[in-house]
Amino acid sequence: MSPRTEARAFQIILRARIAPVFAAFAVLFIEPHLHEAPLIREARLHTHPGGSIDLNTYELTDRILESMLVNRARAGVRVRILLDAAPWHGTRIVIRERAFCARHPDLTCRLAPRRFHYDHAKYVVFDNRFTCIGTANWTWSAFHRNREYIACTGRSQPVRAATRLFHADWQDVLAGRAVRRALIVSPGSELALRSLIGQSRSIEIETEEMGSLPAIDHLLMQMGRHARILLPATLSAWDRRIACKLARHGVAIRLLKRPYLHAKLILTPTRAFIGSQNLTWNSLTRNREVGILIQNPALLKQLAEQFAKDWTRGRALSPQNR
């Protein structure tokens, strides 16, 4: 690690030490406001010698978080890392991740089961008693450039489900249905998300990708102006066509330029979904993806306030930019 990176890591760890400690019940981190500090703090609070960190992330390239994992392993924490075998960004990331794992034999790294199109999940379990689930890869961009959400909880049901899911994927066996009682898990998450959308009269969505999902599209078109969707300004041509179709049925759509919208959020007046799932067929039916439902009023208020700010900064999907 370079001297500059070491200095940056030290600054982040100092921030993690002095940051206020939230209740273990539930806490929400919104990026890129907080950078890596919250995850470093949670790792320090919730792992002890003889304990464990089980991390499943699509990409691992953030040097600050890499340093944290190495330091926890040296402190006697068992660290296991489950990575996608061939992320979309390609060979460069795979080479970097494998070199990192090879340099640190006190970490145990494995590639995700090949039955998944991608292992796109982004969650971590600390000591089998605290979990953080969200939209952020463990990359510099996630914590310094992107809009991301990370929900952390010590509640037993989601912690047990995340632990069980990680162990199953680590051993390349099926996790069983029990994990779906506490988490939104792909493959097979479309029905749960469709139910969340269909049971609400109004909806606010942030998603990086907007694929063709006829049943979900139908629900959104029925809502019309009561549905608001925020998408990144760098929307692909295909996703733009889907967005335009929804807009023609009255759905309000805006494009956000900065920060880059990597978030995956579905917000209703009484519940919210945060997870790794984009609204695409692959994401819901072929990938390993993990998300969580939130009903905590304080966290819902945080999410609603952040969505309102992002919506204000967004640019309407008008006929000129369709």
Short description, anyone?
39% of the residues lie in helices and 23% in strands. The protein is α/β, with parallel strands linked by helices and 322 residues long.
- Count of folded domains: 2
Share of helical residues:
25-40%
- Strand content is 15-25%
Query: Averaged pLDDT, please?
Result: 91
**The CATH topology of the largest domain is what?**
Endonuclease, Chain A
Q: What is the CATH superfamily of the largest domain?
A: Endonuclease Chain A
CATH architecture of the largest domain: 2-Layer Sandwich
Architecture blueprint of SSEs:
Blueprint: H1 3-18, E1 27-31, H2 37-46, E2 52-57, H3 63-74, E3 78-83, H4 91-103, E4 107-111, E5 122-126, E6 130-134, H5 140-144, E7 146-153, H6 156-171, E8 184-186, H7 190-198, E9 203-206, H8 214-223, E10 227-232, H9 237-248, E11 252-256, E12 260-261, E13 265-267, E14 272-275, H10 281-285, E15 289-294, H11 297-313, E16 315-316
Parallel strand pairs: 2-3, 3-4, 7-12, 9-10, 10-11
Antiparallel strand pairs: 1-7, 2-5, 5-6, 6-7, 8-15, 9-13, 11-16, 13-14, 14-15
